[in-house]
Amino acid sequence: MPIDWQALADIISTHQRFVLTSHVRPDADAIGSEIGFAELLLQLGKDVRIVNPSATPNHLSFLDPDQRVVKIGQNVTPESVCDTDVHVVLDTSAWVQLGDVGKVLEKTPAKKVVIDHHVSSDDLGAVEFKDSSAAATGVLVSEFAEFMGQPSQGHQADALFAAIATDTGWYRFSNADGRTYRAAGRLIDSGVQPNDLYRELYERSSLAQLKLKAIMLNRVEVEFDGRLAHTFALRKDFSETKAHPADTDGMVNTCLTVEGVQAGFMLVQQLDGRIKASLRSRSDMDVAVIAEQFGGGGHQKAAGTMLPGPLETARETLLKAFADSFQQAPSPT
Fold this sequence. Notes:
The protein has helices at 5-13, 28-43, 78-82, 99-107, 137-147, 154-167, 178-189, 194-202, 207-218, 235-241, 251-255, 287-292, 311-328, and strands spanning 17-21, 47-52, 69-71, 86-90, 111-116, 127-130, 221-223, 228-233, 263-269, 275-281, 297-298, 302-307. It is α/β, with parallel strands linked by helices. It folds into 2 domains: 5-201, inorganic pyrophosphatase (n-terminal core) (Alpha-Beta Complex), CATH 3.90.1640.10; 207-328, Diaminopimelate Epimerase, Chain A, domain 1 (Roll). The strands form 2 sheets. A 6-stranded parallel sheet has the order 3-2-1-4-5-6. The protein has a 6-stranded mixed sheet with strand order 7-8-9-10-12-11, sandwiched between helices. The radius of gyration is 20 Å and the shape is globular.
């Protein structure tokens, strides 16, 4: 069903103070959607803060030139985050992805709103504006801005374009439909330079990032007659290469480039010993169903979850889950 944007417009018109947040380890869709929505609220004369459970990755800092995004516990206390009229959660509706901000949302008396495009969801006690057919949350924010008669401009438009472009693999994934291109086209018409954004996003790798990718590429293995590819990164890999955890972005998609592969996953060891799992599909396999088995979620072709360590156990757990999925949907003859 189409989103009732008037209901969101009514919430905005009757409240003044807003706190925006997104998921842990924010990607470009999270940061870009937050910046895009924050700029819209500012245009409407509202007071806006952006408070995330994780810091903005260095490679995405260019999306936030005014440094509006802060991390809870560093530059802002949980008590001050509670002091608002409306909490807006963008690009997730899962408690597990909200980190310390989730604790605030559990006790805040403020109204809660969710703007999201993921299928998986929890009951956050919020008014939801969700559309899983949208390629990115950035598409939804862009469409809402148009509904409000405030088309995106300047770095707001840049942030939303980056949100959409990254969640569609620079428009090469199957979720890049006509609606996606129309949203991108409006942003380009407003002045976005895609070549500049592509360079910022994909053509300024650090030497540390390249060294980490080399390690992870060397670890790629295939299973199930070449239908599944996977790789991993250990904590020591980051210390030895001086790479950042965000430098693993995109590696799981690289697994899908192996000829004959229908699905892939990447495991990244966290500081607390847990294992972050990123799952991808290039077939009819629904990896969100697999992720949901372990408290995660996402989309049919892109999902994620957090597993207990050690890494070897997490890998065997996922291999078993993928084996079950392949049995249910055998390889085409």
